[in-house]
Design a protein that fits this description.
Elements (H helix, E strand, L loop, with lengths): L9 E8 L2 H12 L14 E5 L2 E8 L15 E7 L3 H10 L3 E9 L3 E7 L5 E7 L14 E8 L2 H11 L3 E4 L9 E5 L2 E8 L10 E7 L3 H10 L3 E9 L2 E7 L5 E7 L3
Parallel strand pairs: 1-3, 4-7, 8-11, 12-15
Antiparallel strand pairs: 1-4, 2-3, 5-6, 6-7, 8-12, 9-10, 10-11, 13-14, 14-15
């Protein structure tokens, strides 16, 4: 990525876990990342890299005062959508029925962030870039390639995201993808949405990252050897071959080897 992310586009992901070092080791071994626990002045936040470019963050679960949460929140990836005016976006979010989970804050000179819950409860972040624009590599092996919202009411979610951000929710025209919705920015698909009917009962509304991999089957096997759980074994679908996994601390993510376009 050499150009700034357009507002509304997924631009960064990070993971909050009880055992930060174990998560760094797992994902670095699985995807070929480099990473280490960050300095104290950054709360230990780890910016993992691929080919020297930032691809994802991993942080230890903690309260704002540095104490250990009780109960511990579930391990989960957060998807951040880019904005060029976070305060105005937050007003649009609340006007459209969303809730502010973490109010906007400056992250040194890197940018400003906030965490939001949409009306159905799916949590996502907002990122207003400063010196840091987001992921430096996407759509390559080991890097983010897709972000997907699973929600009980796609029609309501379409209205919310279109009101809160400069995105358009459009039925996918991909053959065999009936019912799937794409989030588009300037006519380009940047994420997707599906309803809850295709996930097991009890799974809450959520955003989930997809990582591009050269071989889904090899990555699935490597992940299992490292203690991960298979939520949906490798299967072929309209966009390629994919699997849904949960890392050893329970964080769900998808891997996909996309069909050649």
């Amino acid at each position: 990525m050499n150009d700034p992310y357009r507002p509304g586009t997924p631009c960064w992901i990070d993971l909050m876990v009880p055992d930060q070092q174990a998560a760094i080791d797992f994902y670095c071994d699985l995807f070929g990342w480099q990473g280490e626990v960050g300095p104290p002045e950054q709360g230990g936040y780890s910016v993992c890299t691929l080919k020297g470019k930032p691809v994802a963050g991993i942080m230890k679960a903690m309260n704002p005062d540095g104490s250990v949460p009780d109960p511990m929140p579930p391990t989960a990836w957060t998807t951040y959508l880019s904005t060029d005016a976070i305060d105005a976006t937050l007003r649009s979010v609340t006007d459209a029925g969303g809730a502010v989970v973490v109010p906007p804050m400056d992250v040194m000179d890197l940018g400003r962030m906030a965490v939001i819950a949409d009306p159905a409860g799916a949590v996502f972040g907002l990122w207003q870039p400063g010196t840091f624009g987001g992921a430096g590599i996407v759509n390559e092996h080991g890097a983010l390639i897709w972000s997907e919202l699973t929600t009980p009411d796609p029609e309501a979610a379409s209205a919310f995201y279109s009101a809160a951000l400069p995105v358009t929710a459009t039925p996918s025209e991909m053959e065999g993808a009936g019912g799937y919705v794409e989030f588009q920015v300037d006519g380009r698909a940047v994420g997707g949405m599906m309803d809850m009917s295709k996930v097991p009962p009890g799974v809450p509304p959520h955003w989930q990252p997809y990582f591009a991999v050269d071989s889904v089957d090899d990555i699935q096997a490597a992940a299992v050897r490292a203690g991960a759980t298979v939520l949906a074994p490798a299967f072929d679908m309209v966009a390629g071959r994919m699997a849904v996994l949960a890392d050893p601390q329970g964080g769900p993510f998808s891997v996909i080897s996309p069909k050649a376009s």
